[in-house]
């Protein structure tokens, strides 16, 4: 479906040279559209490689989120919002979240409110994460 892909692109941005995590100033190193797997300082990539990685990783996250949902009733937009969330926060965090628990229970309004709780990095509220979580919640409710 890839309904969350525009949000991933908007908030990750694409950088063709590796850069340190903005919250920590170091690890994990990131490249392309938020890729961290195997990235180290000094790495570079082409735009074509960045786009290919994005599609590959998005599909991997989508599969993991579908598995975590365990057959729970989910719209394409709800799935897209949760994939975008997992792309940024990790599948393990989604699996253990109140967001997922509420979604599975059919409390969609409650689940949508949970996105906002995930707006911190290294214990600090981040404006970009606050905007991203609002965008994910809006997609979830569409």
Give a short summary of the structure.
With 142 residues, this protein is mainly alpha-helical. It has seven helices and four strands; from the N terminus they run H-E-E-H-H-H-H-H-E-E-H. It has one domain (5-141): Lysozyme, CATH 1.10.530.40.
Low-confidence stretches at least 5 residues in length (pLDDT < 50)? none
Largest sheet: 2 strands, antiparallel
Let me know the average pLDDT.
96
| Radius of gyration, in angstroms, nearest whole number | 15 Å
Keywords summarizing the entry:
Lysozyme, 56% helix, two-stranded antiparallel ribbon, single chain, mainly alpha, two-stranded antiparallel sheet, 142 residues, globular
Structural commentary:
By secondary structure, the protein is mainly alpha-helical. The protein has one domain: Lysozyme, CATH 1.10.530.40. It is built from 7 helices and 4 strands. The protein has helices at 5-12, 47-69, 76-89, 91-95, 98-104, 108-114, 127-141; strands spanning 15-19, 30-32, 120-121, 124-125. The strands form 2 sheets. A two-stranded antiparallel sheet has the order 1-2. Helix 2 crosses helix 3 and helix 3 (76-89) packs antiparallel against helix 7. The longest helix has 23 residues, at 47-69. It is globular and about 45 Å long.
């Amino acid at each position: 479906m890839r309904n969350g892909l525009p949000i991933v692109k908007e908030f990750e941005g694409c950088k063709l040279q590796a850069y340190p995590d903005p919250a920590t100033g170091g690890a994990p190193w990131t490249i392309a559209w938020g890729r961290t797997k195997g990235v180290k300082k000094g790495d570079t990539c082409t735009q074509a490689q960045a786009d290919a990685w994005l599609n590959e990783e998005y599909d991997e996250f989508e599969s993991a989120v579908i598995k975590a949902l365990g057959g729970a009733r989910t719209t394409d937009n709800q799935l897209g919002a949760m994939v975008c969330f997992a792309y940024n926060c990790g599948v393990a965090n989604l699996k253990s979240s109140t967001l997922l628990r509420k979604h599975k229970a059919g409390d969609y309004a409650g689940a949508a409110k949970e996105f906002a709780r995930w707006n911190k990095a290294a214990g600090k509220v981040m404006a970009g994460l606050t905007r991203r979580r609002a965008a994910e919640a809006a997609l979830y409710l569409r």
